[in-house]
Write a structure and sequence with these properties.
It is a multi-pass membrane protein. It is found in: Membrane. Its main location: membrane. The protein has one domain: Amino acid/polyamine transporter I. Helix content is 65%, strand content 0%.
Length: 462
């Protein structure tokens, strides 16, 4: 895990530098979808936008499942309220449906529909809560590290380290939000790399310290099957094995749904463990909110471009938000969170994210060749080194994802292609000759940024 966090952070860093150049050139809504549209054409943009569903919506589901685990544990250990196993776990863990995950998904969706967004102050408070919780965990766990818990250091060898980096990549999802502020940044050529690399370095350091504290103080070696076989994360076999082991000994870390709180309780800090659960309960909904927010923003832009039905860009007359697509997205997030484990959801999300990052890296190199004179408030340093490294990193991590996640992506893309040729190909504004679509500012939702006057035109289909 310690090395895996560094690998994932490096891949994110080089991808972030590519993101920043395009974000500064086209400071409009839509993230990688918009960048791809401007540089590679409509077809590739559709594939990217469709893949981003796996990044944002599926990631929101994964965080909802994680929130459920911490809140269920908090209620049990602090208030003695026990939510039945069948109603707090999906079928993979021997349950029926994850009710708490559904509740938080719909609650966040409701907030987005009525237009409640995070202010900078609220966000700063939530970040402070997260940092304080993680700092407390590190301070209490690092001093009681037992060296024996690190042996063997890499029980699954180099392939295991890279595979862990592929799964851990999920922890960095959302960093591209930093890059989208490149146009509004003072001295972006200097400050954007500092902001991106600095934030990634701080996050990576926190991840490594937390992982070291959890592994060293409690132990986190893999849980194997009865005959020593490897058990896939999120599988029914692992859940069954965890139940067997937990019945006769202390629950292994890999089997806990509230890992950090579990470690604190096991090393004689039960109050801190409960506070960690409370911090997760307070802070994680903001992550779910921003992920659903990002998904609806991309859908809104795709609908505005004609690639999705116009009903998805319809604005609520009172709340001035894209309420229909927000409710559709929220329902999909709740459904996935209800029945799937966090590990599988994270890996599926990674497959879409890696594809989007790869396309952005290709796009930034192509625009350097096809439009070299365009104003670039931020220029990716050594772009023909950085971008290929990002591409190679994304491909490598994708190849080390679990087989199920790798299979989901092409199947998902195939479904997207069917929808594109059945609807978007004929209905898109490019196909109908509507390159630019005038919009009244009153019609634009607060989750969408109207196009700037000098934003690149979508161009040909590519």
């Amino acid at each position: 895990m310690l090395i895996s966090f560094v690998i994932a952070g490096v891949v994110c860093a080089v991808a972030a530098l590519c993101y920043s150049e395009l974000a500064a050139m086209a400071p409009v809504s839509g993230s990688a979808y918009t960048y791809s549209y401007a540089s590679l054409g409509e077809f590739v943009a559709w594939l990217v936008g469709w893949a981003l569903i796996l990044e944002y919506a599926v990631a929101a589901s994964a965080v909802a499942v994680g929130w459920s685990g911490y809140v269920v544990g908090l209620l049990d250990h602090s208030l003695g309220i026990v939510i039945p196993h069948a109603l707090a776990n999906g079928p993979h863990a021997g349950g029926i449906v994850n009710i708490p995950a559904i509740v938080i998904a719909f609650a966040v969706t409701g907030l987005l529909v009525i237009g409640t967004t995070e202010s900078a102050t609220v966000n700063a408070v939530l970040v402070a809560i997260k940092v304080a919780a993680l700092t407390a965990f590190v301070v209490l766990s690092i001093p009681v590290i037992n060296d024996a818990n690190f042996r063997p250091f890499a029980p699954m060898g180099t392939p295991g380290i890279i595979a862990a980096a592929a799964s851990i990549f999920f922890a960095y999802v959302g960093f591209d939000a930093v890059s989208t502020a490149a146009e509004e940044t003072r001295d972006p050529q200097r400050n954007v790399p500092i902001g991106l690399i600095g934030s990634l370095a701080i996050c990576t350091l926190f991840y490594i310290l937390v992982a070291a504290g959890a592994i060293g103080s409690f132990g986190a070696q893999p849980v194997s099957g009865p005959n020593g076989e490897v058990l896939a994360a999120g599988s029914s076999a692992l859940a069954a094995r965890c139940a067997e082991v937990s019945a006769i000994a202390e629950t292994p870390l890999v089997c806990s749904r509230e890992a950090l709180a579990h470690v604190m309780r096991e090393i004689d800090h039960p109050v801190i463990g409960n506070l960690l659960g409370l911090a997760a309960g307070l802070a994680l909904p903001s992550v779910i909110l921003m992920m659903i927010y990002g998904q609806t923003r991309i859908f809104f832009v795709m609908s505005r471009d004609g690639l999705l039905p116009e009903v998805f860009s319809r604005i609520h007359p009172r709340f001035k938000t894209p309420h229909i697509i927000t409710m559709v997205t929220g329902a999909a997030v709740a459904f996935a969170a209800a029945f799937f484990p966090v590990g599988q959801l994270a890996d599926i999300s990674n497959s879409g994210t890696l594809f989007a990052f790869l396309v952005v890296a290709v796009a930034v190199m192509m625009l350097r060749k096809t439009d070299p004179n365009r104003r670039r408030p931020f220029r990716t340093p050594a772009v023909f080194v950085v971008a290929p490294v990002a591409i190679a990193g994304c491909i490598t991590l994708f190849m080390f994802l679990p087989s199920a996640a790798k299979l989901v992506f092409p199947v998902w893309s195939a479904i997207g292609l069917v929808l594109y040729f059945a609807y978007g190909f004929r209905k898109s504004h490019v196909a109908r000759g509507l390159v630019e679509v005038p919009e009244l500012s009153a019609d634009a939702p607060p989750t969408a940024v109207p196009p700037m006057p000098d934003a690149p035109a979508p161009g040909d289909r590519g």
